[in-house]
Amino acid sequence: MRRQSLEAAVDRVKAKVWTKQTAVSRVDAGRLSLLLHPSLKSSEGASPIATGLGVAPGAASGLVTFTAEDAARLRARGKHCILVVTETGPADIEGMKAATGILTARGGMTSHAGVIARITGKPCVAGVRTLTVDLAEMSCRIGDREFHAGDRLTIDGSDGCVYAGMLALAQPHIGGAMGTVLGWSDASRKAAVRTNVETVESAKTALSFGAEGIGLARSEHMFFSPERMLALRRMILSEDEEDRSRAIGGLVDFQTGDYSALFSTMAGMPVNVRLFDPPLHEFLPRGEEEIDDTAASLGLAVRALRLRLERLAEINPMLGHRGVRLAITYPEILQMQMQAVLAGARAASETQSEPVLVEVMVPFVSTATEVAFVRERVDAMVANSGLLRSDRVQFSFGTMIELPRACLRAGDIAQMVDFFSFGTNDLTQTTFGISRDDAPTFLAAYQRKGIYDSDPFVSVDEKGVGELIAMAIERGRAANPRLKIGICGENAGDPASLRFFAGLGVDYVSCSPYRVPVARLTLAQSRG
Amino acid sequence: MRRQSLEAAVDRVKAKVWTKQTAVSRVDAGRLSLLLHPSLKSSEGASPIATGLGVAPGAASGLVTFTAEDAARLRARGKHCILVVTETGPADIEGMKAATGILTARGGMTSHAGVIARITGKPCVAGVRTLTVDLAEMSCRIGDREFHAGDRLTIDGSDGCVYAGMLALAQPHIGGAMGTVLGWSDASRKAAVRTNVETVESAKTALSFGAEGIGLARSEHMFFSPERMLALRRMILSEDEEDRSRAIGGLVDFQTGDYSALFSTMAGMPVNVRLFDPPLHEFLPRGEEEIDDTAASLGLAVRALRLRLERLAEINPMLGHRGVRLAITYPEILQMQMQAVLAGARAASETQSEPVLVEVMVPFVSTATEVAFVRERVDAMVANSGLLRSDRVQFSFGTMIELPRACLRAGDIAQMVDFFSFGTNDLTQTTFGISRDDAPTFLAAYQRKGIYDSDPFVSVDEKGVGELIAMAIERGRAANPRLKIGICGENAGDPASLRFFAGLGVDYVSCSPYRVPVARLTLAQSRG
């Protein structure tokens, strides 16, 4: 797919050779996505200093970094960085998520780095044979050039090229023929397309790509800057009420501004806030140094902090004390989040003419009793806020459906909520019994031996996960005919999966901003 | 329930007041289980030195130990030990599994220690307020007495008493009225009762309780002694074929003897061997010291060993590189296990008149392609062995059904196997998205707030997990009418769950030896 073929399609419609629907149906949604990653500005004309395998598409530039800790630190300061490693393993996941791009000396398409990079949408160049990393010196050689931590580097995960320095990148945009074809496609699809974002910047990108709301704002992402992280840690580690109340006060203030800005950016469109999901220990310090720093900043004894860390540690965090379990066992976290959401909605409603459409959803539920417990508290806070007295703020409450049991009990759960949002990532992990982070060690062999038809984290597993989703929709709608249905996992940006979801009659899908055009087109092609 | 009430029931039948079936129906299966734990010999008359809460029933005596590492080391040497700690957390799970009994200073019925102890069937006394542990000195005080690592201690988890020294324990036995009532119950149940054991000693206990076969022999348990563990580690860590072949040769010899003895003990009854299940890193050294020792024993550089350990580490081992994934990615492990099973069957068949009934099953499958891959290799080895030429050895192949996707795809999978064995532990973990090991941090709050009707790891969750099991049985039998159905998780020893399974028409259940009588009685009470 080139931009030219889109232009040719538009010309055929103008010449009345094709109808608009024919043009929409002829565009290859899978190839469209290749036009939707950042790329090197063609004017640059720089020479690569090395080439490897482009295993995850898109270009990225940033500061050279060698460890997960440094990548997280840079990210927290708003800096882009390229994680440079010999090869990646489970210990590098957090660093990969924090990095803007990934560069490895070993591995190919199905290596750990390749799989995780594609899942997290990070550009990645793997298997650069001329790269050697010296962790002791915090430096690396690429061919005959030496780079130290903090030096600048650019990679292009589409063709495997590596460049010295920070080259200018072109952000993908929609316009011309692509905009025209996507406009036509909007007229012929039933399901809405939303996006998964937490920041105003990403929300604006998604709006420029045609997003019609936010389907997933991961509220915990609002704590990633250093001072917020410290306030969050103070709350998690507080031993007495006074200390905890002080920490919570600061956290509410931070977030109120964030939510208000997000609601204003999306004025008149729904914004879905997912309550806190990850286990608390994911926000606590790990390395020796960071533990010492945190203890000093919070005025805690290092020994006491270590003891607390040990108590919060988990063997299988993916199946641990997270999601709705946190809302139930730490009601002050639920309260803090709802305070901030409601204050943000009030602030936004006072400065804009469109209504503020707030959705709050609770993750990782497996029983209707969990949902009832949370809904009761949320409803009380919403009622207390007085926000619903005018129609300037609308509020709805829903639940993620991301565990097999939630699918089975969808009939009970649907009676307690306004909407379901299927989280295909966790639902795939639990249905298959596979940790996405750990899968790369056997997924490569599985693909070689043809055990899976396709990677279920990319295209929804129709015969397994898909049956659970279909069952949940049927049971949910039977129990609550006004139930709204959304999909918000990685699958929601994959053409094959989108066709499947369209067939189930979902009300909306929500994907990362760069996937929004793919979803708009595919849903138009899939209408019944 | 006292033995006396059993005797009264038998007397009523003798007096023709009750029929045998009435007697069977009147016995409370839940209370029967209280008679089936080791207990203090009443003749002892010792005075407790402290009392706490009896949070997991049964008496245990052994050497005082304070760390998971020491408990594992003692267990490997065949010693019983009592793990003594202030309170337990996720880091103590391995120690708790290795210990014979657990004693804690803090916590109650729903503490981490209590929940894990009951799940693993270990006697546990918790919340002993006069206990203080000094880890630096490897000693503890209980009241005014001091104990060091290696001192002897006895606990009674039924009444919470703690005694100095190793008191004599009475093993539960079946005889007299209990034996009579259980004999009657055997006549009126349809499903067979098997047991989950790996050693000849446990198999004999289970036989004395009326087990009719082994439903689950966890093959990895055969590697728990120090020299076997070293051979296993040599295989896991071997980098070249020659080294690996040598390690495997030694491992086959060890296991052949084990299997032969197990088959002979169970002569004429089915013995179900589950292929290797846990991720390989669970068998590798952890602490500094153990890593150094292992490197020295295997002639590896410590640095290289650490690198290898890092590469094998997993974030969510429960959802990681385990079960059938090992058989597919390390075919030499599958080959080694099958060699040993077949050689063991041959040896046993040469010394006994009854046929050797071998069943092999593959764990943690989610697709029929996985099962087909393993079955093809297993069938080839069985055919090569020539064992099936006479009818002295019978062989069948099956799969664990312990993932939601396996339940959904049961129709495909059933066509490849002779039997399904439901693993309710992992199926409950994945259906609910709960790690059993990590659950104690929120399960206590859930029970207090009434979120769950009952603990799904004790009594099967009929509305969720139960629906998946019923669906899998229906789809499996429709696709393969000769399919045999068994249940082998913790639920298979719980009366409420057994009634549910009986209603599904399972062919057998398999539980720990001490639960066999409970299963015999409950299944008789539940016949349709």
TrEMBL record, chains A, B:
Keyword Magnesium in the entry? The reply is yes
Q: Could you say which cofactors this protein requires?
A: Mg(2+)
State the EC number(s).
2.7.9.1
Q: Which residues form the PEP-utilising enzyme mobile domain?
A: 80-160
Keyword vocabulary terms for this entry: Kinase, Magnesium, Metal-binding, Transferase
Pfam families linked: PEP-utilizers, PEP-utilizers_C
Q: Which InterPro entries match?
A: PEP-util_enz_mobile_dom, PEP_util_C, PEP_util_CS, Phosphohistidine_dom_sf, Pyruvate_phosphate_dikinase, Pyrv/PenolPyrv_kinase-like_dom, Pyrv_kinase-like_dom_sf
What positions does the domain PEP-utilising enzyme C-terminal occupy? 182-526
As for family, the record states: Belongs to the PEP-utilizing enzyme family.
Q: What does this protein do?
A: Catalyzes the reversible phosphorylation of pyruvate and phosphate.
Q: What is this protein called?
A: Pyruvate, phosphate dikinase
Q: Which organism is it from?
A: Devosia algicola
